[in-house]
Design brief:
Layout (H helix, E strand, L loop, with lengths): L2 H16 L3 E5 L1 H5 L12 H4 L7 H6 L1 H11 L12 H11 L5 E4 L5 H5 L6 E3 L2 E8 L5 E3 H9 L14 E5 L8 H13 L2 E5 L10 H8 L3 E5 L12 E3 L3 H17 L1
Parallel strand pairs: 1-2, 1-7, 2-3, 7-8, 8-9
Antiparallel strand pairs: 4-5, 4-6
This protein binds zinc ion (ZN).
């Protein structure tokens, strides 16, 4: 291991050991390490489809957009075949050793929970693929229930209770951010003293405001991401590497130092 990397890891270990409230902020880089394409990146969904054709407003107005959206939705089931990676498990380990306040994520795949972070500690800013919601009464359906209907030939599933329009519980382009989650994420960001930014280039707003809130409140920032981010100049530690390559080492060291 290069000396410089060794120092960066050691510095991060010290910051975690010294912190009272650690908030973890995660982005698409976490999921791509599990083999899920970044929707916005090379080869991603939005290079094959035009996101302007799938805005929230067009979904509401145009039955054809809804039909095509449900065809795309069928692809979400591949997520069942994909597993969390060492980076997700390392974050869950942080929780087990009492070093995790919460995870704020831009990802919709549910991998933090799958890796063992308790549901109540995961704030999903961009929603989740695991559920479908009724836009009229708010009833939620599990992903499997709806994909089953699609397999049976239903082109546009509707709500059992009220006949209302259903939509994936992910946040679409043009759709408002979830109010409760956004407020919770801001509160946790303002109250933490260390913010670990993992696998995000911090370009999607308003999600990317969270590390700014943390910094404004005096928290230190550690950024682990391949490629530059919009906040590199403010990071106390900046590691240009895959999260799964370094975070497990960092957490192992924190664990052994706590035990000694
Ligand atoms: Zn309904």
């Amino acid at each position: 291991m290069a000396m410089e990397m060794e120092e960066l890891i050691e510095e991060t270990v010290e910051l975690i050991l010294g912190a009272k409230k650690v908030v973890v902020f995660t982005g698409a880089g976490m999921s791509t390490e599990s083999g899920i394409p970044d929707f916005r990146g090379t080869g991603g969904l939005w290079t094959k489809y035009n996101p302007d054709d799938f805005t929230y407003q067009k979904f509401l107005k145009d039955p054809d957009v809804r039909k095509r959206s449900w065809q795309m939705f069928g692809m979400f089931r591949m997520m069942d075949l994909v597993q969390p990676n060492p980076a997700h498990y390392a974050i869950a380990e942080l929780d087990k050793i009492g070093k995790l306040d919460c995870v704020i994520t831009q990802n919709v795949d549910g991998f933090h929970q799958k890796a063992g972070v308790p549901e109540e500690k995961v704030i999903e800013l961009h929603g989740t693929i695991k559920f479908v919601k009724c836009l009229s009464c708010g009833k939620r359906y599990r992903l499997e229930e709806i994909t089953k209907r699609l397999d049976e030939g239903v082109e546009e599933p509707v709500c059992d209770d009220c006949g209302g329009m259903l939509k994936s519980a992910t946040i679409s382009f043009g759709e408002a951010m979830p109010v409760r989650e956004t407020a919770e994420a801001e509160r946790h960001s303002r109250e933490c003293d260390l913010c670990l930014i993992l696998g995000s280039s911090l370009v999607v707003y308003p999600a990317a405001y969270m590390p700014i809130y943390a910094m404004e409140a005096g928290a230190k920032l550690v950024i682990i991401n391949v490629g530059t981010t919009s906040m590199d100049q403010y990071a106390h530690v900046r590691i240009n590497e895959k999260v799964g390559m370094v975070l497990p080492k960092i957490v192992d060291r924190v664990k052994s130092r706590l035990a000694s």
